[in-house]
Amino acid sequence: MIHSPICNILGIEKPIFQGGMAWIADARLAAAVSEAGGLGLISSIQAGTEAVRAEIRKARERTEKPFGVNIMLAAPNAAEIADLVVEEGVRIVTTGAGSPAPYIERWLAAGICVIPVVASVAYALKMKELGATALIAEGAESGGHVGELHTMALVPQVVDAVDLPVLAAGGIFDGRSAAAAFMLGACGVQVGTRFLVADECHVHEVYKARLIKASDIGTMVTGKSLGDAVRSLKTPFAKQFARMEADPSVSADEIRAFGTGSLRKAVFDGDLSGGSFLAGEVAGLIRKREPAAAIVNDIMDGAEKVLAQANNLIYGS
Amino acid sequence: MIHSPICNILGIEKPIFQGGMAWIADARLAAAVSEAGGLGLISSIQAGTEAVRAEIRKARERTEKPFGVNIMLAAPNAAEIADLVVEEGVRIVTTGAGSPAPYIERWLAAGICVIPVVASVAYALKMKELGATALIAEGAESGGHVGELHTMALVPQVVDAVDLPVLAAGGIFDGRSAAAAFMLGACGVQVGTRFLVADECHVHEVYKARLIKASDIGTMVTGKSLGDAVRSLKTPFAKQFARMEADPSVSADEIRAFGTGSLRKAVFDGDLSGGSFLAGEVAGLIRKREPAAAIVNDIMDGAEKVLAQANNLIYGS
To answer: Which of residues 277-296 of A touch B (CB under 8 A)?
Structure first.
């Protein structure tokens, strides 16, 4: 069984996190991943702060194993959520879309492991300075908000720059990419897109069907012109968004208005013309629905198998 | 020593190709890589067809080991080059920027191994059907012309789709990324950017200095609006190109005119305001000039070391 320092730090069996996807990652999905030995994460983006509290409590009913909360720091209720995780005794927090600087001292004092998502070396260094426990280096292969660098180039640069445990995210789908991440120097992986088709994931059936149908070039990045690049499936909505960005007669405000609420329209309504179906480049590899535990095990068992064969490449050593 | 099927097919010692970079990859660089046990490639983009012939002959004087020619099929003299490689008895051809369909039968009949660069599953399948010997799956981390997918997601999808040896390109810099490529199912790697600072590489000193200075986020992609996406260093030229693309008052023809000859201005003149300094995302990892052989050995020895440690991750197996 694959074991890495992040397992000891967090008290988990398998060095795999489930991405804390906004409006998607709830108690049911997170608990299923944690029960399978990985780290489930609940998103702070639910229907309000109290809804997050309810999900944390539900997750605790479903599993005694560690799970965490992903806090989107750009959200209006970020400060409330920052309090909430302390109140609720959450042990692990991942952060994205903003700096955890206003909260991190308090979290660390409360014994919370703080693991920011980073997309560049400069940001990794800043997080190290703030006292982060570990980092998730996320390449722009990922679904949702993306940076400039991709996993193959990003992870080694972050690993070289900071003396912290680094997990790899973006482009991780199965044992092969997980094993590749370890070769790059990561001590674990975070997987988002593949968990979208987990039986325990509540996204709309249309969302799941589109992921299973997606080809290798089934995703695109929009929002760069707004300084807010996002990877999603190439749906009518995403194509329209891109057309609006390319049209000089459409203002940034109009484009933002078009995008408002689009993630919920995808997740809850399966609305292809109004919804943003966030997904990573690995969408093309998704073939079937399966339980979250089967996904965790396929990735980790697969990685073990691939890593065990690594020596076969080396002759005469 | 790492050995893979591509070594046997091509008669090379080490499963590493040097990218056949336009205006850059000449006899000196290619022969140095081949002498080090990898596969050197001469670009078909030189000062005319006869210049390519001269480079092939020069390479043969410098090494008795296999080397190849990379043919840019969109170039006006592609048909001439297609003849030339047969006339000159070249044994290995890699192709990019277009389909080798008009030439491949003749090449294969002449005993040439044909290895197209692919950026998607559909193109990989097409190349397999044409009779390609192997494929290079190139992720958009690479310098120069880029597709939509990145290495971590692209390589496994190409490996799953075609029953051919697949090399990985894009984001490959050292032993870590080479080992990662093997984990993804590749049987070899192609490296471009890092060879730009090789002692045997003739690019302008300013080009080399900029690569050594580049940070992790030192590259950008331009040309998407023209259907011709290219990754290069973030120079004044590249930023101006991007501004022109974003400006609705600038026509596509004006942008193309601005870009004409820009690669040569970078390679030969080190012209930061007029030159396109093509480079991949790994530019941020480049720290020093060194001989091509040192690069080959660092990557392959590093990969061997990293792969040999893979078992350390697995406890109790």
So the answer is: 280-282, 284-285
Contact state of B150 with A140 under an 8 Å Cβ cutoff: yes
CA B309 to chain centre: 28
Residues 77-116 of A with CB under 8 A from B: none
Q: Give CA–CA dist B25/B202, Å, rounded.
A: 9
H or E element that contains B157? helix B151-161
The answer to whether B23 and B43 have CB atoms below 8 angstroms apart is yes
In this structure, what token pair is assigned to residue B168? 């990985």
Distance of CA A96 to CAs A71, A119, A135, A217, Å?
6, 10, 11, 26
Q: Compute the residue count for chain B.
A: 317
Check: CB of residue B14 under 8 Å from CB of residue B2.
yes
Alpha carbon A146 to chain centroid distance? 11
Nearest to B100 by CA among B120, B121, B129, B122: B129
CA distance A228 to chain B (A): 16
Region of B101 please: left (phi>0), alpha (psi -120 to 50) or beta: alpha
Instruction: Assess A221–B contact: CB distance below 8 Å, yes or no.
Output: no
Lookup: tokens for A134: 């570990």
Can you read off the two tokens belonging to residue B255? Answer: 């942008």
Residues of A in contact with B182 (CB under 8 A): 183, 310, 313
Q: Is the pTM of this model over 0.90?
A: yes
Q: What is the pLDDT of residues B39-70, one digit of tens each?
A: 999 999 998 999 999 999 999 999 999 999 99
> What are A58's two structure tokens?
């539900």
Site from B149, B183, B250, B300 to mutate, A interface, most A CB atoms within 10 angstroms: B183
- Are the C-beta atoms of residues A136 and A169 closer than 8 Å to each other? yes
Interface touch B171/A150, C-beta < 8 Å: yes
Mutation target vs A (from B152, B190, B299; most A CBs, 10 A cutoff): B152
A216 and B248 within 8 Å at the Cβ level: the answer is: no
Residue of B217, B316, B317 with shortest CB distance to A148: B217
Contact residues on chain A for B245, CB-CB shorter than 8 A: none
In sequence order, the 6+-apart residues with CB closer than 8 A to the CB of B228 are: B145
ipTM for this prediction: 0.95
How far apart are alpha carbons A86 and A62 in whole angstroms?
20
The predicted-structure confidence for B272-311, as pLDDT tens digits, reads as follows 999 999 999 999 999 999 999 999 999 999 999 999 888 7
Residues 119-138 of chain B whose Cβ lies under 8 A from any Cβ of chain A:
120-122
Distance CA A10, CA A281 (A): 28
In terms of phi and psi (left: phi > 0; alpha: psi -120 to 50; beta: otherwise), the region of A170 is: left
| Cα–Cα distance for residue pair A72/A81, rounded to 1 Å | 9
Task: Read off φ and ψ for residue B172, nearest 5 degrees.
Answer: -90, 120
Cα-Cα-Cα-Cα dihedral sign, residues B35, B37, B43, B48: positive
